[in-house]
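User: I've been trying to design a sequence by hand for this structure and keep getting stuck. Would you show me what you'd pick, starting by listing the structure so we're on the same page?

Assistant: Good idea, let's start from the same input. This is the structure you sent:
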């Protein structure tokens, strides 16, 4: 009789251990995805907050003046950034033109980054390379507010959806530019 009770208790403990292990693995994946989404959102906020000017934002991309690297007050091609959602690779990519590019010193205007429709043209510029900012991004949307306002700083709002292993996590955020957002 004692052996039967011992076997029942041992079976119950084993079942509990398996259940705890399964729960732990399920939670671990969700926590990893949530952590990755938080890190990506923080990096995106830092990048946009430091921008000198945002020209345009749309469903899957945002074009901006990264900063005045040579302090001449003019926006050169090598100082422009384009953040784009690459749906095929499920990632968020920051495209920039290298300072060593033959076209790097080309002076640009606000109109040159006033539309995100020219993304393919920008990415085809010699020396333009992309750097992944975030992985597992299944959807991305950007919106620009207060553009051209003389009383409020521009704000870029974003919605990023991360998906991996059958789990999804949506991250909402906003970045207010530290600079005045005045067109170059």
């Amino acid at each position: 009789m004692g052996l039967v009770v011992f076997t029942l208790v041992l079976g119950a403990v084993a079942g509990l251990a398996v259940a705890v292990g399964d729960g732990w693995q399920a939670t671990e994946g969700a926590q990893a995805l949530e952590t990755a989404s938080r890190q990506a959102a923080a990096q995106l906020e830092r990048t946009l907050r430091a921008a000198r000017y945002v020209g345009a934002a749309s469903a899957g991309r945002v074009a901006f003046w990264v900063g005045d690297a040579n302090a001449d007050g003019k926006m050169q091609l090598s100082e422009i950034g384009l953040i784009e959602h690459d749906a095929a690779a499920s990632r968020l990519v920051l495209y920039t033109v290298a300072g060593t590019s033959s076209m790097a010193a080309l002076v640009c205007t606000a109109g040159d980054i006033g539309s995100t429709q020219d993304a393919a043209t920008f990415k085809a510029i010699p020396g333009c390379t992309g750097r992944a900012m975030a992985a597992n991004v299944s959807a991305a949307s950007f919106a620009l507010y207060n553009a051209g306002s003389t009383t409020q700083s521009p704000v870029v709002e974003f919605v990023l959806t991360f998906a991996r292993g059958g789990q999804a996590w949506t991250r909402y955020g906003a970045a207010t530019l530290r600079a005045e957002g005045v067109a170059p």
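That's my pick for every position. To get oriented when you compare it with your attempt: The chain has one domain: 3-176. Residues 3-176 form one domain.
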